[in-house]
Amino acid sequence: MNAFLATDDEKQGAEVRKILLREGLNCPVSSVVRLGLAPQYLAREPADLIMVMLPVEPERSLDVLDWLGKLPRQNGERVVAIGPAADPKLVLRALRGAVDDYLDQTDLEPELMAALARWRASMAVQEEAGRMIAVLAPSGGSGSSTLAANIATVLAKQHKSAALIDLKLQTGDLAALLDLKPTFTLADLCQNVARMDRTLFERSLVRHSSGVSLLAPPRHFDDVVRITPEGVHQALYLAKALFPYVLVDLDHSFRAEQIEVLRQADLTLLVLRLDFVSLRNARRSLEYIERLGISRDRLRLVVNRYGQPKEVPAAKVEEVLGMKVFHYVPNDPKAVNRASNNGVPVVLEAPRAAVSRSVTKLAHGVNGRPRAAH
Prior knowledge:
8-stranded mixed beta sheet; 5-stranded parallel beta sheet; Rossmann fold; alpha/beta; 2 domains; 16 helices
């Protein structure tokens, strides 16, 4: 594995390089460069592990984080920033950008060893990792939660299990849609992130008879502040290690933990209605997602509740957004509302309904894996 280090501190840079070499990474002297030369170096010499030591000047640190955010990401590449942990605003800014790990420069060696262990663990399960699909609606009322629950149900039926994570932290209703009563939530996991392992994660899930396992959002508004990007990162890692599919229902706040999912997702379904407000917000969301460095190749437009009177023409939507619509889900309020009120996915309660057949087809379209043997 090739490592790259950008730093203006020669002494600390030499210490970091020594640790990297000791841990078996390829980090020649030519791969240690000054911060100002890093962008042009990385443009011609990609690396598996990119480490950046932030300067002590706050403004320069922000400039470095800005160019890191614009850095084209390769598959499996990891970006680590090293800086002062005493500045929470700087840490948060880093984790909202392109940084996968932020290390405290005052306790560098143990922090770096732990980061390398996490990276190696993620690489070890990469081939076996579950496929992660994020579901994002730029406007409320688009039915994205219903789609997420039903897609997860179809995939669980095909592959014997699927994880469903509710990241609508204040308004999440996946538990109600599945008639589940969670005992633990994502807030409990984030509160115990230091000891979050497979056992703790599995105990935090509530299981549905379809094979879907749900990780619920906080029960109380006061608990939302307990959600951290680090906790979400670890939960996603464990979910992908345990399940062939992980569906994540996002809100449209673009908070740090939401961005963490967008960066990790193999595919993001952008769910919209054919009306002006939804179209406007979809365009704003697409522009922001692109600024995060996420390629449109990993996005799919899904029109939900299709077929209502006075809709914006689909051709106009594709022209404004510069993308083709991947799938249309027909409007079927009678079947969907009945299923939601009963706490049963519509694909189970009314499998022959037009909306169920459409959602099943959508799930097949984002599958990416052969079916499990029965």
